[in-house]
Amino acid sequence: MEQAIIAGGCFWCTEAVFKDVIGVTEVESGYIGGDKADPTYKEVCTGNTGHAEGIRVTFDTDKITLADIYDVFLGTHDPTQLNRQGGDVGTQYRSAIFPLSAAQSEEAEAAIGRWNAENGKMAVTTIEGLDGGAQSKPWYPAEDYHQEYWEGEGQGNPYCQAVIPPKIMKLRKSFQKYVKS
């Protein structure tokens, strides 16, 4: 098992996508990259804490590689949008990868390079938090009501209804071999 931390806009949306990825055993929504200890959702939403809404993905490396996780991540959101995803605007919605090791950092650079070459565009996705081979900014799990949001309350949320299904369709269209049956 390995973990990866990524941020691609609203964590509800990113979590919903990765819940459908083969080999993924757990997805936890949370906050990373900021300076305030134990931030709340309300604080992160102001954009003043420096945190991004992210997800921590636990996956089985016998079923999916870190490179594949990063490729799915880059391919299911718009990595060319600086500090926004659709209507969500602010640094808390930035596209970022938070490597947990030097090897993950190298893989993140390779994934962004692949995405840029394949799409003829430049991703603004940042690689953040690596300091001497260890994550320099701590991970804070989001409040319980944010976990597995799409499976519960999100189905009735108009925002989620507008944003999540197109991301899941991107997953199913572009990454069919990684979709859970």
Mind summarizing the main beta sheet?
6 strands, mixed
Give the ordered list of helices and strands.
EHEHEHEEEHEEEEH
- The DSSP helix count reads 5
| Arrangement of strands in the largest sheet | 7-6-1-3-2-10
Structural class: alpha+beta
Mind telling me the CATH class? Alpha Beta
Mean of all residue-level pLDDT scores? 94
Total strands: 10
The Cα radius of gyration reads 15 Å
Distance between the termini: 21 Å
Beta-strand percent range: 15-25%
Shape: globular
Q: What name does CATH use for the topology?
A: Peptide Methionine Sulfoxide Reductase, Chain A
CATH superfamily: Peptide methionine sulphoxide reductase MsrA
Domain count, please report it: 1
CATH architecture: 2-Layer Sandwich
Helix fraction bin: 25-40%
Extract low-pLDDT stretches: none
Structure, described:
The chain is an alpha+beta fold and 181 residues long. The chain has one domain: 2-Layer Sandwich (Peptide Methionine Sulfoxide Reductase, Chain A). Helix content is 32%, strand content 22%. It has five helices and ten strands. The strands form three sheets. It has a six-stranded mixed beta sheet, with helices on one face. A two-stranded antiparallel ribbon has the order 4-5. Strands 8-9 form a two-stranded antiparallel sheet. Strand 8 and strand 9 form a beta hairpin. It is globular. 41% of the residues are buried. The model has no long low-confidence stretch (mean pLDDT 94).
Notable traits:
181 residues, alpha+beta, Peptide Methionine Sulfoxide Reductase, Chain A, 5 helices, 10 strands
